[in-house]
Amino acid sequence: EDQVTQSPEALRLQEGESSSLNCSYTVSGLRGLFWYRQDPGKGPEFLFTLYSAGEEKEKERLKATLTKKESFLHITAPKPEDSATYLCAVRDTYSSASKIIFGSGTRLSIRP
Amino acid sequence: SAVISQKPSRDICQRGTSLTIQCQVDSQVTMMFWYRQQPGQSLTLIATANQGSEATYESGFVIDKFPISRPNLTFSTLTVSNMSPEDSSIYLCSVEESAGELFFGEGSRLTVL
């Protein structure tokens, strides 16, 4: 059974303090691993898709990496506006979009 | 990527009433997905809406409680019927993009008193 586990549940950082969020997954075959950012009361905003182990994607202060068992979202020198919940999701090779599995998210708070 | 608009963005409703949420996409899509996100929780798929056929509901969700319409390839509605406080959630419309990821609308935040 496909599973996605995100850690930590919550992370509080000082502005400029770099860190990483973890997404561990289990799928029979990976079609894609997705990262989203979600602000309170809003819909998830798509950030990255990763397809295979060793792949990396970057956007501003965010960098996503992928291995065969987990993905990391690295945040370099974060700013208060990076505060949000970050969601990870996976899609199995043979499944439809309706079978995308979401993790429970990591709530990130950046203090000025 | 598709632009997805949802209405209302938020509403406060009385117990026992029903509310219809609208989702408009700026391009034609085969499938539209409706999700629920309860406070502090992750996303749960309610149903998949296909144009020209009945929606496909996930386990735990039924048509009588969450009727869905899909009159054309750019529009869908989700009704939350006979609401109770447990229905207080963010309801999200989404579509699949070409690379297999989902894009979401801004969400409709419902509070049931």
Question: Which shape of chain A, going by the Cα principal axes?
Answer: globular
Proportion of beta-strand residues of chain B: over 45%
The major pleated sheet of chain A works out as: 6 strands, mixed
* Oligomeric state, counting identical vs distinct chains: heterodimer
Q: List segments of chain A where confidence is low: pLDDT < 50 over at least 5 consecutive residues.
A: none
How would the global form of chain B be characterised?
globular
Number of strands of chain B: 11
Helix content of chain A: under 10%
The pair of chains with the biggest contact is:
A-B, 21 and 28 residues
For the termini of chain B, the CA-CA separation is 36 Å
* Coarse structural class of chain B: mainly beta
Q: What is the overall pLDDT average of chain B?
A: 94
What's the total number of strands of chain A? Answer: 11
Q: How can the largest sheet of chain B be summarized?
A: 7 strands, mixed
Q: Whole-Å distance between the termini of chain A?
A: 41 Å
Structural class of chain A: mainly beta
- Radius of gyration of chain A from the CA trace? 14 Å
Care to describe what's here?
The complex is a heterodimer of chains A (112) and B (113). Chain A contains no helices and 11 strands. Chain A has strands at residues 3-7, 10-14, 19-26, 30-38, 45-50, 56-59, 62-66, 70-75, 84-92, 101-102, 106-111. In chain A, the strands form 2 sheets. In chain A, strands 2, 4, 5, 9, 10 and 11 form a 6-stranded mixed β-sheet that branches. Chain A has a 5-stranded antiparallel β-sheet with strand order 1-3-8-7-6, with no helix packed on it. The termini of chain A are far apart. Chain B has 113 residues and is mostly beta strands. Helices cover 0% and strands 51% of the residues of chain B. Chain B is built from no helices and 11 strands. Chain B has strands spanning 4-7, 10-13, 19-25, 31-37, 44-50, 56-57, 68-72, 75-80, 89-96, 102-104, 108-112. In chain B, strands 2, 4, 5, 6, 9, 10 and 11 form a 7-stranded mixed β-sheet that branches. In chain B, strand 7 and strand 8 (75-80) form a beta hairpin.
